[in-house]
Amino acid sequence: MADQEYDPDALDAKEEEDDDSHESSKERIIALIDADQSMLATFEDDGTERSYLAWAMFLLEQQCSARIRASPNDEIGVIFYSTKQRSESDELRSFEHVWEHVALAPPDAGTIRKLRDFQEASFQDQPGCDDVAAAPGRAAEDLKNGLWACWDLLTKGGAASARVDKSLLIFTNNPDPLHDAGSAAPHLREQLHSRARELGGLAVSMEVVPLVQLSDPAAFDYGPFWRGLLQEASSAARGCEDGLAEAGQAAALQMDEAPESLLAKVDGVLGINAKVDRVRGINLRIARKRPLAALTWSLAPGLKIGVQLYGMVQIAKRPAHKYITRDKADLVTSSNALVAADTGTILPSVQHKAFVPDKKLEGRFDKHKAFVPDKKLEGRFDKVMLSRAEERELRTLRPKGLTLLGFKPASCLKDSHQLGPSRFVYPDERWLKGSTAAYVALYRACTVGREEPLMSVCSYVPRSGGMPSLAAMLPQRPGYETGDDGTVQLVDSPGFHMLLLPFRDDVRAPEAEQAMLKRLDGVPPRASDDQVAAAETLISALSLDIPGEPPFSSTLIDNPHLARYWQVLEDLAMGDEPRPLEDLEDDTAPEAEGIDAHGATIDAFKLAVWGSTDGPPAQKKAAAAAGTKRKAAEVDGTVAEEYAKHDWRGLAAKPGKAGLEKLSAALLKTYLKFHGLAVSGNKPELIARIQEHVAQQPQ
To answer: Which of 365, 421, 525, 607 has the smallest CB count inside 10 Å?
Structure first.
């Protein structure tokens, strides 16, 4: 007990366990790549010809780059199966025809370097591509060993790995590894299904990525082999008690009806002959966005569906500073040691075996083993041990999740109601079966056949017993974009956006506050009709939306300087020389010519509001520039006497030491105090403030 720090959350975790589990914020991904001779065939896309093995490395390199920026805690590993040699690592040495290319760990520059430098020639030397066609049943045996190796890696970490999402990506072009197994096919099939069930028991999401679909989406037939393997993994996955999950059934039916890839279904969805960016499509299938939370949505008494909430905006925090060595760029760390006071030598550490009472546990138990609550734990144990019935009643009154209250037209939602970023709501079939069908039915009822979609209003409780808040479920219709090369991309997914609605006290109304009315003599200012018309004309003239073009978005503006920064940073991390600087075309600067073209509109607005094209009065501008926040105090006789001794206009006109610079800061503040200006800042700021004020005064 003395060696471990007391953690009341861990101690009482089992007692407080309920359905408040949020989704994990970390993912372990293992790419299991088929290294058969057939994977050395080449495919060309946009003038780049690579083998299927090299395409797999290219796709994984892009994933690693994205994970480093967005999810640096994720772990990625790359394993080959059907290799001639076995892995040299201690963890996978016992698996035959399995080679570990990248160890399961957070990706870094070394990981990207290893994937980028992949060469088929060197790979043929070590570990080599096995010819599975020469030995019947070899493909299935190698796949079984590969699945077993993935299970062994994903089980490392014990109970801590239960809160981590796990994904297995199988890159292959073999539609049926059992086609040449003969009489051994039933036995091998059962072994493979057993491996899939064990992976499903670890809540591993298994995905088959046939690279041959890059050249022809209909070239790969999932067939009964891969359908059965995925079904076995789905049936044992998290949230499935018996039988096959609805998501697995839907996927299997989809494969039965159309064996081709989902990438080929864009033509059917859009009803046009579209060229699909298949490389990007496979990247989207590999990258899985993790939800922020999983909860239930109560649509009616006795009808609940499972949904997941996805964040649309991620907070970009500035990373902490880290110090590295100059020669090897190693991270500088601190260490402690015992040093002899007389000789200065480092003493060896001593293992303390004696029991040392922990002060944090004092007061919990007296010498008779009776419970004596201390002040630190008093509130917690009162709640857990004495008010369990009250706590259950509170959770019953305020259950976690969403509760549908009613519907409103979408036009009732104002811009002022959105106080934060929205969250995208998507059905979760693993949570409750039938959620997808009910979700789609609700979405169609709110959008199909309506010019203005319906908005559902719900009560949202983020956790059991928490304070409820109102949320608006705004439906979003699907949106597609067609590129210059004919490529069609889905840019707006169909579904609901959840917007947390503010309470009345959350929305400020300064014009109705008593303090504001008192400052305005009880009459708030009102703009005249001419001023309102001038403001509307000004806003229309300066609108950034151009007729006939997509609406303006700040995400569509390229920042070449920021891109150059990340480019140089990536090159330095990879140990390469920075790429040569190209001509940067900066689109972030405002278009001065376009703004100047609306000079007449701007002048008309100034004339309507201030009665002059010069804008606000000069005295107000000077006070605003000087930073005056309150009424200046009365000028005393000492300040006025000192102020009269100097020719301030003449000093302001002289440069350098002959002018204001020869005066001390105390004398400069005399001028500022006399005119009621701010006196903060260093000496150059004081001089600049005086010169600006003198220039605004009449001669």
So the answer is: 525
- From CA 245, how far away is CA 206, in angstroms rounded? 14
DSSP state of 162: G
pLDDT digit string, tens, across residues 662-671: 888 888 888 8
C-alpha span between 610 and 604 (Å, rounded): 10
Triad 685, 690, 692: Cα angle to 5°: 95
For residues 9 and 666, what is the distance between their CA atoms, to the nearest angstrom? 59
Strands 165-172 and 204-210: parallel
For residues 71, 330, 114 and 30, what is the CA-based torsion angle, rounded to 10 degrees?
-40
Burial class (CB in 10 A: 0-12, 13-18, 19+), 507: exposed
Whether the ω angle into residue 475 lies within 30 degrees of 0, i.e. cis, is no
| Helix 529-541 with 599-610: angle, nearest 10 deg | 160
Mean pLDDT is highest, among 467-476, 641-650, 679-688, for 467-476
| Mean predicted confidence (pLDDT) in 304-320 | 80
DSSP string for 562-574 = HHHHHHHHHHHHT
3-state secondary structure of 130: coil
0.70 surpassed by pTM? no
What does the buried/exposed string (b/e) look like for 195-206 if buried means 16 or more CB atoms within 10 Å of the residue's CB? Answer: bbebbbebbbbb
Q: Kindly give, in sequence order, each residue whose CB lies less than 8 Å from that of residue 545, ignoring residues fewer than 6 positions away.
A: 551, 552
pLDDT tops 80 at residue 536: yes
Q: Using the CB atoms, write b or e for 54-81: b if 16+ within 10 Å.
A: bbbbbbbbbbbeebbeebeebbbbbbbb
